[in-house]
Each structure stands twice: as structure tokens, then as C-alpha cells.
């Protein structure tokens, strides 16, 4: 009976090992994706906390929140970030809104927020900002799995762009 079973283990391993390896690598890929999303959430949150408080209440020149955000994200993302996101694909944008109603109008009424007329590119006297980060996730199984986009958005009140913080005449809060 033992002579008939010779090679059975080899056949079972040859059939089962590829399936097992696919499961293991899929699990690792899922863990890396989860880690990548956690890093991007953490980096964006820390960057927004620092960026939204930039400037002063009586500044005459507007603060460049977008450049400050990009700088702080690169500092906050950590060492592993360059392995998880394709560097050329990272896109960071900041959209500004005068008030909450404009923000709601743009988010509910438009599929692409870039086409909304209430959305502004300049931060001067814009109380609400939506920070957006988009990147292509760099898969471990690069040749097997397709690339896909990861998007993160965070809304914040710009501390020194609100009219309540403006002191003195000529602060720009006409309405």
C-alpha cells in the first residue's frame, strides 16, 4: 500500500502551495493597504492641525496654506510613506469656502467640487477649508494587482481667516 502512495505528498503540495501563497500575500497586501491609509490619515490630520493655525490675525499678506500643508505632510508621513505611495502621484489641494452654506452647496450640488463657483483658491477671509490628499497606492504585488487611488478629505476652520479674529480697521471682513 505504501508503494501506491509514493508522490502523493508532492502532488498535494504542488496543488495547495500556490493557493496558500496567494492567500498569504493577499493578507499581507491588505495589511499594507490598511497601514497606508492609517499613515495618510494621521499625516493629513497632523498637518491640518498645524496648518489651520498658521499666520496671525492681523496679517496683511495671505498665508500659503497649501505649501505649508505639503511640507508638514512630508514631515509627518514617516519613513515608510515613500514605499506605500507612488511619489509622483501624491496630489494635495486645499479648497476654501466663505461660510458653511457655500461648503454644503458645493458638496451636495456638484459632482466635482472644482466646478463649484463658491469654492475659492485663495484663503483670504475664507473661514472653511477642505484639505484633500489623493495618491496612488503602491502595491506589493505590482505586476498582479492594478493600481488604485486613495483619497482623503478633511474639513477645518481656518483660525486666522475667520472675521471674529480680525482686529482693527481694514481687516477685510466687509460682509
From TrEMBL:
It holds the Pfam family TadE. It comes from the Bacteria. Residues 7-41 form the TadE-like domain. This is Pilus assembly protein. The lineage of its organism: Bacteria, Pseudomonadati, Pseudomonadota, Gammaproteobacteria, Vibrionales.
Amino acid at each position: 500500500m505504501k508503494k501506491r502512495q509514493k508522490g502523493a505528498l508532492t502532488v498535494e503540495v504542488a496543488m495547495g502551495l500556490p493557493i496558500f501563497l496567494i492567500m498569504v500575500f493577499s493578507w499581507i497586501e491588505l495589511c499594507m493597504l490598511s497601514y497606508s491609509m492609517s499613515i495618510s490619515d494621521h499625516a493629513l490630520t497632523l498637518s491640518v492641525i498645524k496648518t489651520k493655525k498658521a499666520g496671525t490675525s492681523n496679517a496683511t499678506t495671505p498665508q500659503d496654506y497649501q505649501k505649508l500643508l505639503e511640507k508638514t505632510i512630508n514631515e509627518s508621513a514617516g519613513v515608510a510613506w515613500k514605499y506605500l505611495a507612488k511619489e509622483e502621484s501624491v496630489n494635495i489641494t486645499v479648497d476654501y469656502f466663505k461660510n458653511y452654506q457655500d461648503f454644503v452647496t458645493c458638496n451636495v450640488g456638484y459632482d466635482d467640487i472644482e466646478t463649484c463657483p463658491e469654492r475659492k483658491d485663495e484663503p483670504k477671509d475664507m473661514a472653511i477649508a477642505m484639505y484633500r490628499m489623493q495618491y496612488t497606492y503602491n502595491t506589493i504585488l505590482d505586476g498582479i494587482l492594478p493600481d488604485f487611488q486613495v483619497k482623503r478629505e478633511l474639513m477645518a476652520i481656518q483660525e486666522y481667516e475667520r472675521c471674529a479674529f480680525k482686529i482693527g480697521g481694514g481687516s477685510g471682513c466687509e460682509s
